[in-house]
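Hypothesis: this fold can be encoded by more than one sequence.
Test: take the C-alpha cells below, design a sequence, compare later.
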C-alpha cells in the first residue's frame, strides 16, 4: 500500500518521475547506495522526529547525522527519533521505505542543506525496495519542504 501512495502522489505531482523498484533491499543507506550504484551521500534518508510536541520529517544526505545543537537552534527543542510504530502512523511507510511522498496527513517536511552537495539524490519511494531519482531542489519543491542546516557530515 505504501508504494502505491507514493506512486499516486507522483502521478499527480511529478508524472515524469518513475520509481525504480529493485530486487535488492534499499532499506539502509549502504544497501541503497550499493543497489543503485551511487555514493552513500546521494541516498536521501528521511528521519521522522519529534521536536517539542510536533512530529516532522527531515530529509538529509545518507552520510549526514543530526547535529543536536543545530537542530535545537533551528526548531527550538532537541529532536527525538520517533519509534517505528509512530513512523508508520505518521507516514504510512515502514522503516526502510520512509519518504516525504504520499503521506496520509499533512506533515512539515524539511530538507537539509547536506542534500545540495549532489546533483541528484535518491529518496525511498514507500518501501524497502523502491527509490526515485531527482534533484534536491525538485525534492523540496514537490513536498513543500523548507531548507534547513541541521546536519553534521
Amino acid at each position: 500500500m505504501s508504494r502505491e501512495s507514493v506512486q499516486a502522489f507522483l502521478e499527480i505531482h511529478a508524472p515524469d518521475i518513475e520509481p525504480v523498484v529493485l530486487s535488492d533491499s534499499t532499506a539502509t543507506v549502504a544497501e541503497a547506495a550499493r543497489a543503485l550504484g551511487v555514493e552513500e551521500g546521494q541516498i536521501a534518508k528521511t528521519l521522522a522526529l519529534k521536536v517539542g510536541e510536533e512530529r516532522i520529517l527531515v530529509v538529509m544526505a545518507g552520510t549526514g547525522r543530526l547535529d543536536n545543537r543545530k537542530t535545537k537552534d533551528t526548531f527550538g527543542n532537541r529532536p527525538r527519533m520517533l519509534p517505528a510504530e509512530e513512523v508508520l502512523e505518521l507516514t504510512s511507510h515502514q522503516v526502510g521505505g520512509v519518504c516525504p511522498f504520499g503521506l496520509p496527513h499533512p506533515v512539515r517536511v524539511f530538507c537539509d542543506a547536506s542534500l545540495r552537495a549532489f546533483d541528484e539524490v535518491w529518496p525511498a519511494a514507500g518501501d524497502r525496495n523502491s527509490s526515485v531519482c531527482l534533484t534536491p531542489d525538485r525534492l523540496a519543491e514537490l513536498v513543500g519542504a523548507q531548507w534547513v542546516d541541521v546536519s553534521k557530515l
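The mean pLDDT is 94. Helices lie at 2-13, 29-36, 68-75, 84-91, 136-143.
Hypothesis status: open.
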